[in-house]
Amino acid sequence: MSKPNILMIGPYPEWDMVELEAQFEVHKLYEAPDREAFLAQRGADIRGIATRGELGASAELIEKLPKLEIISVYGVGYDAVNLDAARARGIRVTNTPDVLTNDVADLGIGMMLVQSRGMIGAETWVKDGSWTAKGLYPLKRRVWGRKAGVLGLGRIGCEVAKRLKGFDMDIAYSDVSAKDFAKDMTFIADPVELADRSDFLFVTLAASAVTRHIVSKPVIEALGPEGMLINISRASNIDEDALLDALESGKLGSAALDVFEGEPKLNPRFLTLGNVLVQPHHASGTIETRRAMGKLVRDNLACHFAGQTLPTPVL
Ligand code: 8YV
Question: Which of 93, 105, 211, 306 could form a cystine bridge with 314, CB 3.0-4.6 A?
Answer without folding.
Answer: 93
